[in-house]
Amino acid sequence: MAKIIWTLIGLLILFWIIGLVAKIGGAIIHFLLVAAIILLIINLIFSRKDK
């Protein structure tokens, strides 16, 4: 499960960078970045409980 979350985080950040370079997407790209950061924080919190 953690590998899937890290893959999603990576893809969301990649799409955000592409959106900034190509100047497409507008607010949706920034929403994706916020979603990636939230997933990262959730993953870090729950992975510490497992150890």
Please describe what this structure looks like.
With 51 residues, this protein is mainly α. The chain is 88% helix and 0% strand. It is built from 2 helices and no strands. The longest helix has 24 residues, at 27-50. The relative contact order is 0.17. The model has no long low-confidence stretch (mean pLDDT 77).
Structural key phrases:
51 residues; mainly alpha; elongated
Which structural class best describes the helix and strand composition? mainly alpha
Spatial separation of the terminal alpha carbons: 15 Å
Q: What is the global morphology?
A: elongated
> Radius of gyration in whole Å, from Cα?
12 Å
Largest sheet: none
In DSSP terms (H or I, runs of 4 or more residues), the helix count works out at: 2
Assembly state here?
single chain
State the low-pLDDT regions, or none.
none
Percent of residues in helices:
over 70%
Mean pLDDT: 77
Strand fraction equals under 5%
Output the helix-strand order.
HH
Question: Quick gist of this model?
Answer:
This protein is an all-alpha fold.
Q: Topology of this structure?
A:
Layout: H1 2-22, H2 27-50
